[in-house]
Amino acid sequence: MNVPKWKYAVLLLVALAFLPGPPAPALGAGTGAVKGVMKTPWVKRYEGLVYIDRVEGKNFAPPKKPVFMGQKDMVFKPHILPVLKGTTVDFTNNDAIVHNVFSPPGSVKKFNLGTYGVGVTKYETFSELGEVTLLCNVHPEMLGFIIILQNPYFALTDKSGNFEIKDLPAGTYKLTAWHEKLQSASQQITVEPGKTVTVEFKDLKKR
To answer: CATH number, domain at 53?
Structure first.
């Protein structure tokens, strides 16, 4: 009996539909992960940052090239920029107007890049751990943040507050949740090889 070729094609597509998908990416050897949620309505408007406070006995070199913090439509982009200690940041003015980038008192580094025009790039290096607030003397509504960290194990939250940090070496760490509108909160976690720790940050207090 002759079977039309199109029927073979249909049967093949049906068979492929029931094949299992590719496996989830495996964690690196000797590493685990941490995931969870920052429970606050503020994350719908402003993302939060969750990071490992310190990895003992290790030094992490900053990137060789500057990291970008743009100014476009009178907004700092990205709004929050986590960087490694020693990172140089590129403050390019992508607007059609002048800007002035500076940090107010309370920042771990005080600086003022002065007023500069369209397409001009200025650089600043951040070598102290902590928070730097970014403001513009010309446009007081502009606000941004640079968070200087000891290690690259961090994640920004989504609009539901979810986050995940992968390929974290096994060990016990202090995990910190940061948000511009809330006081930081920390908890201790223990990461085991091949496993994922689940955490929750809730009842966070306003600054």
So the answer is: 2.60.40.10
